[in-house]
Automatic annotation (TrEMBL):
Protein name in UniProt: RNA helicase
Protein's UniProt keywords contain Transmembrane: no
InterPro entries hit by this protein: DEAD/DEAH_box_helicase_dom (IPR011545), Helicase_ATP-bd (IPR014001), Helicase_C-like (IPR001650), P-loop_NTPase (IPR027417), RNA-helicase_DEAD-box_CS (IPR000629)
Keywords assigned by UniProt, alphabetized: ATP-binding, Helicase, Hydrolase, Nucleotide-binding
SMART domains: DEXDc, HELICc
EC number: 3.6.4.13
Taxonomic lineage: Eukaryota, Fungi, Dikarya, Ascomycota, Pezizomycotina
Catalytic activity: ATP + H2O = ADP + phosphate + H(+)
All residue ranges annotated as the Helicase C-terminal domain in the record: 206-359
Length: 370
């Protein structure tokens, strides 16, 4: 199929052509025809990272909205402001010939006290709910609600699986589902590797040596705590590296976070150190490598498989080749990495740490092999 067969309006098809969207991805080809049927049906959709889930619901939303009406008909909820801003970029790009009016419901990005009159509102849950409670955001005419990264958002609220099932039956009855088989979860285009460090402190030395000899596009380093992100960034800066840091406790709040991600997206900075705030959904096409300085853990101290998958999914976007490198430094972290390997049924290759030149050559070969 091509997009012109998916019954989208001509102005939207023109924007798709301008953006070189010709052939729908698997999730787009399956989901869009269903989402455009009448009467509308609820849908739970799952797909690998970087396969066009955002465009799937944006195309549907832009097709269903009546642009002659000046009230809110579409609402998108995202777990972070970074993802909300990225979704808005897609809406504005695909809706550029349709006269779509959009507004944010995220901190420091809307006028307090002023009523929303946009066709589509994109927000984070807390701010959006606050706007609804204060009467700024009227949802009486809502045609489409999208909860992006829904599993993560519900998990952040501390909802157990049983509670989630009850809520889904109440608020999304007769929901259609499009989910992946377990073996389909991991991303084939990402070469997964690990480096065995002597101890926890030795990880930093290996990281610095790696970046001294390895020249690639952009990369993201994931750490467990924001204090570690700041500390590693300061130490790498003294080694001459230009580093950006992104986490939820940056000074100046959202404004500072916006500048960090904008600088990284435009290539002003090439290395970004972050916590899990950036693990979900962010698409920066130049990211060739992801480093798990710390493996992701859940609140119970166990390996967090979904977050691992989303982290490495920041590279290898939409079929591109990418590399993920995880640091291990003791028996516990080694066993956790083996759990990842077993869980996803993938082989994770060892990168030599004794000779970083050899190790960097090993990585470069995998990045550029495809």
């Amino acid at each position: 199929k091509i997009f012109s067969t998916l019954y989208s309006p001509e102005p939207l098809l023109r924007a798709l052509a301008l953006l070189n969207f010709r052939w729908p991805s698997r999730i787009q080809a399956r989901a869009i025809p269903i989402l455009l049927r009448d009467p509308p049906r609820n849908l739970l959709g799952q797909s690998q990272s970087g396969t066009g889930k955002t465009a799937t619901f944006v195309i549907t939303m832009l097709t269903r909205i009546d642009f002659t009406k000046s009230f809110t008909q579409g609402l998108v909820l995202a777990p972070t402001r970074e993802l909300a801003r990225q979704i808005m970029d897609v809406i504005q790009a695909l809706g550029q010939y349709m006269g779509v009016k959009t507004q944010f419901a995220i901190p420091a990005m809307f006028v307090k006290g002023r009523e929303f009159d946009a066709h589509i509102v994109v927000g984070t849950p807390g701010t959006t709910l606050d706007c609804v409670r204060k009467g700024q955001l009227d949802l009486d005419h809502l045609k489409m609600l999208v909860v992006d990264e829904a599993d993560n958002m519900l998990d952040l609220q501390g909802l157990g699986e049983q509670c989630i099932r009850i809520k889904s039956k109440r608020y999304a009855p007769d929901c259609l589902t499009m989910t992946l088989e377990h073996h389909e979860l991991t991303v084939a285009g990402i070469k997964q590797m690990y480096m065995d460090c002597l101890n926890a402190e030795a990880k930093f030395g290996v990281l610095v040596q790696l970046y001294h000899v390895l020249t690639i596009g952009s990369s993201i380093i994931f750490v467990h705590r924001r204090e570690d992100a700041n500390r590693i960034a300061e130490r790498m800066a003294t080694e001459g590296h230009k580093i950006s840091v992104l986490h939820s406790a940056l000074e100046n709040g959202g404004v500072a976070r916006d500048k960090v991600i904008d600088d990284f997206r435009t290539g002003h900075t090439k290395v970004l150190i972050t916590t899990n705030v950036l693990a979900r959904g962010i698409d920066v096409s130049t990211v060739s490598m992801v480093v798990n300085y710390d493996l992701p853990m859940d609140k119970d101290g166990k390996i967090d498989f979904p977050t691992y998958l989303h982290r490495i999914g920041r590279t290898g976007r939409f079929g591109r080749i990418g590399v993920s490198i995880s640091f291990v430094h003791d028996t516990v972290s080694w066993m956790q990495l083996m759990q990842v390997s077993d869980h996803f049924g993938v082989s994770i290759s060892k990168v030599p740490t004794g000779d970083v030149e050899v190790g960097s050559h090993f990585i470069r070969c995998d990045i550029f092999k495809g």
